[in-house]
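Service request form, structural biology core

Requester: graduate student, group of Dr. S.
Request type: structure prediction, single chain
Budget code: on file
Notes: please return the result as structure tokens.

Sequence provided:
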Amino acid sequence: MPGEVTILGAGIVGICTALSLLERGVPVRIIDRAAPGQETSFGNAGVISSFSIVPHAYPGIWRDVPGLMVGKYRPLSVRARMWPRMIRWGAAFLRNGTEARLRAVSDAMEYLCGPSVDLYRHHLQGTGAEDVMTTSTYVQAFRDGSKASLGTLGSRVRLEKGADMEVVGADALHCLEPALSRDFKAAILIKGQARARNPGRISAVLADKARRLGAEFLAREVRALKRAEAGWQIECQGEVIRSETVVLSMGAWSGDLLRPLGYRLPLMTERGYHVQFADPGITVGNSVLDVEAACIASSMEQGLRFAGQAEFAPNDAPIDPKRQAHLTRLAKGAFPELNTASPTLWMGRRPSFPDSIPVLGALGEERGLFVNFGHSHHGLMMAPKSGEVLADIVTQTTPNRDLSAFSTDRF
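Core staff response, request fulfilled:
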């Protein structure tokens, strides 16, 4: 067993990693500049789906990319400063757009997403906040009803892996979600899933549980990670912290720490936004995906949240203020009776690799340095299993699976 493990990053992935290490008797210290789970993990759509296992690259996606960047919905945008990096990253992304690669990546995604609902129930048990996660159907709603098909490659993959799915028409859809616009003519229902009623509170509750189990949280900004004679040297503002074993789980900021060590991974910052309405006047009972807009609506403890889209931009780029009006228009179009007064806008930074799956495990031949980041759109779903796997690796427990799909060597 290792001595104390230092986790860099207190997002939901870092918190779940800490809980799994603590359950194995390993003392843990977590360092992050922000309160646990209150940056990228705070503002996601709250979907906890065992079958969100279809990667973003699919056969023929190259034909769809231009349409994603123009028109009424515009779910994809790229800041000018990102185009030089985007060209290489995008080429790698498109190379994953074959059926063989989609199926291979889906297998890896299923391994991490599959047990998410049960593992969250396990982690939340005894916290008094078990109701922060509730059962849900994942509703994928289409304006063009002909596109709601179980014959697509993505639907076939889910069905092959055991998903309980159904296509419903307009009447059944609006019986399920009465507030949804009648413009939506059909939907694919993925049943037996869950959703977070407050993703930020899930992180806070689980961080408190980790504290009770002995974890130490340090509010520090990590500036650099350097090799030392015995382990690693973590340089923070005005302070140096040493640790024999380090887990790097800083999401979109992880690549910056690895670059001085000689590792240049194809990690991109794919920023997501949400707009939230504190007094929406309607209720959305499930996680509802507006497929054309690439946005998910869900009723949360703080109101109705409409979250999604993808903006490739540098970590330090300012928030795009035009997003609030754009997302509010899309939300109102999807839910005509929605009260859109006084919306609040939020932005978070998704750490994305071109194959939609994270790096997970030991970093090359580096002694005592492990990685667990790059979960793209699926950090909330993949976090508990990623934490279990990483804890097994750190404690030298051999997982009953080939983990090469998550290796940094795949790049």
